[in-house]
Specification:
heterodimer, A: 314 residues, mainly alpha, Glycosyltransferase, two-stranded antiparallel sheet, 13 helices, 1% strand, B: 300 residues, alpha/beta, Rossmann fold, ten-stranded mixed β-sheet, 12 strands, 24% strand, globular
Chain lengths: 314, 300
């Protein structure tokens, strides 16, 4: 692994310095600990192979996540909020990579497998079959995961859940996991924008092709890496490579870099670089962006990065 | 305060054919007439930043944001922050860098706040138009003394037009509700607009209509040069005026019609028009066929 001053000096130091006393990370320095920020910061440290994992820091983060888990196995965005959300996938993924929290991971998995997006109710499916939408062109029978309970499937939370499922050993997955995963992968392919790439989840509105975006495209590609041979994947990688030079935000650049690297495309020397974007606004002191940049610069992002050659049946 | 007890609202229409003009001077002149109570206050500007769009069609133009900031500082505001929580795009820095916001505001850290990642507090909604009852809202918004909604003049493929009231969707934090904030769609867009604006009502609105968007807005429509800034002390009256400038009947835009009963004035007789007249700047906007019923005929 090559050295990276940005990763080693800034990202790592920033995250070490700004871990909250309770063990979690907020979205910004000194802001209240948030599950998503803590999950990604912990994942960034665990995946880091160029320096020893700061064991005490990671243990404190793990303990904070364990305390934040709700009795139903889910994680809310912040402790105390009344319901679980997409951050369950991220917390579960981080804890699974960290180890020593198998029960919590199993409870997170159980909640995710039983959390269905709202467009999938019998009534809604029947209505959709009888009166297909003329506004959005997508198959609502294909369901992934939602951002929050009671809402619809979207690309990013679906990709996060798939990445978590992929990180688990097969013996840990109950029988319904394979079916759920298959359905979610089909949903992602269905939501791809015509021409490749993804936006948040509306590929076609009023017959007009939606415009793909960097973040959702990178997440969807990471989640679907077991299907690298499919033309949709190749088309979307092509779109992402073409859009790479237009990126102005470090979060998008980190995700794009991590995704393209995972598919064996070398982009680290291509402008813009993460160092250049750091100089813009110092990432606004944003923990999530910093964690994603660290993951991108780690090159061998552990677990959350796709497993090459993995296949699935659609 | 119900609309029938409110005094007449004031809305000004200011002509500006381009973003290269001295918008700060134009806005300062227009805002002086309102005698706004902003001296020593923390002012929050809430633009509409949606996507990384280098062409300047989708988002509130940064020149308007910069001019508004300069104006409120000249009017004596203690501080003027700019804050937005884009609905679909997580990379807020990517948006503000694509549109070159720094060129108009200077260094952004400390000045610009990503509302999607701000600290949040639970807030009970003041109305029950939707089933939501409570939302977690950003501290930056809740602690502001004076909120200015600063949208772009655009059509919208779900609700007809997106103006200063719909723009307030951007205060709902993604860190609690995701990207998009789908909970608002499931609760109903119209009732959610009403509940959010009844709870955090903008004190002022400035709509960037120098180049608007028609057709399949708010993202994939076509640029519509309209050459106006529309501003006022009642967001409902401002939006109603915007709709009339766009050639739409505000009474037929569902959320505006309902907001006219709850949050501000819709009827022209309750709006004191300053600057240009609506008729002199009217620029009919194309809408999707699903919204053709919104088009005003003979001004109605």
């Amino acid at each position: 692994m090559t050295s990276s001053p940005l990763r080693d000096s800034y990202c790592r130091e920033f995250l070490i310095t700004h871990q909250n006393p309770d063990g979690g990370w907020g979205y910004h320095r000194a802001s209240p600990s948030a599950v998503e920020a803590t999950g990604w910061a912990l994942t960034a440290f665990i995946s880091s192979q160029q320096a020893p994992v700061p064991a005490q820091l990671c243990a404190r983060a793990r303990d904070w996540l364990l305390q934040a888990q709700r009795s139903d196995g889910s994680w809310p965005p912040f402790p105390g909020l009344p319901q679980g959300c997409w951050a369950t996938s991220i917390a579960s993924l981080a804890l699974n990579l960290q180890g020593g929290a198998q029960t919590a991971v199993e409870r997170g998995l159980h909640w995710l497998l039983n959390e269905w997006p709202a467009e999938g109710t019998l009534w809604r499916r029947l209505r959709h079959k009888l009166f297909p939408s003329r506004v959005v062109g997508q198959d609502n029978s294909l369901r992934g995961w939602n951002w929050t309970p009671g809402t619809a499937s979207w690309v990013e939370p679906t990709a996060h859940a798939l990445l978590f499922l992929r990180s688990l050993p097969p013996q840990m997955l109950p029988p319904q996991a394979a079916k759920r995963r298959q359905l979610a992968e089909r949903m992602l392919f269905d939501r791809m924008c015509p021409g490749g790439g993804w936006n948040s989840g509306n590929p076609l509105v009023y017959g007009v092709a939606g415009m793909p975006r960097i973040g959702p495209t990178a997440w969807a590609l990471l989640a679907l890496s077991g299907h690298a041979e499919r033309p949709e994947i190749q088309m979307s990688l092509h779109w992402l490579e073409g859009a790479y030079r237009t990126i102005h935000g470090p979060a998008s650049l980190a995700l794009a870099q991590r995704c393209l690297t995972a598919y064996g495309r070398r982009v680290s020397q291509v402008a813009p670089t993460l160092d250049e974007l750091y100089s813009q606004n110092h990432f606004f002191g944003d923990v999530l962006t910093t964690a994603w940049v660290m993951l991108a610069l780690n090159e061998n992002g552990n677990g959350a990065t796709p497993t090459a050659g993995e296949t699935a049946t659609l | 305060m119900p609309s029938f007890t409110r005094p007449a609202s004031r809305v000004a229409i200011v002509r500006s054919g381009s973003y290269d003009r001295d918008l700060g001077a134009l806005l300062f002149e227009a805002l002086r007439e309102f005698d706004l109570p902003v001296g020593g206050k923390k002012v929050l500007l809430k633009p509409n930043f949606v996507e990384p769009d280098a062409d300047g069609i989708i988002n509130t133009h940064p020149a308007v944001v910069g001019a508004a900031r300069e104006t409120f500082l000249r009017l004596g505001a203690r501080s003027v922050q700019v804050a937005e929580g884009p609905g679909h795009e997580r990379d807020t820095e990517g948006i503000v860098e694509t549109i070159r916001l720094r060129d108009f505001l200077g260094p952004l850290p400390g000045l610009f706040v990503d509302l999607n990642l701000d600290e949040v507090r639970a807030v009970n909604l003041r109305t029950r138009a939707s089933k939501l009852k409570q939302l977690y809202l950003p501290r930056t918004v809740l602690e502001a003394d004076f909120i200015v909604s600063l949208p772009k003049l655009k059509t919208h493929h779900w609700v007809g037009a997106t103006l200063s009231l719909k723009n307030m969707f951007g205060i709902v934090p993604g860190c609690c509700y995701g990207w998009p904030k789908n909970v608002l769609h499931w609760a109903g867009i119209t009732p959610s607009i009403l509940d959010i604006n009844s709870t955090v009502r903008p004190d002022f609105a400035i709509v960037d209509g120098i180049i608007g968007m028609e057709g399949n807005g708010p993202i994939q429509g076509s640029p519509k040069p309209s050459g106006v800034l529309i501003l006022g002390d009642d967001p409902v009256a401002v939006d109603a005026t915007c709709a009339r400038v766009m050639g739409l009947a505000p009474e037929r835009i569902d959320y505006l019609a309902k907001a006219g009963a709850l949050l501000g004035h819709l009827k022209p007789e309750k709006i004191r028009q300053l600057g240009e007249s609506v008729a002199s700047v009217r620029t009919p906007y194309a809408v999707l066929p699903a919204f053709s019923k919104l088009i005003a005929v003979n001004g109605k």
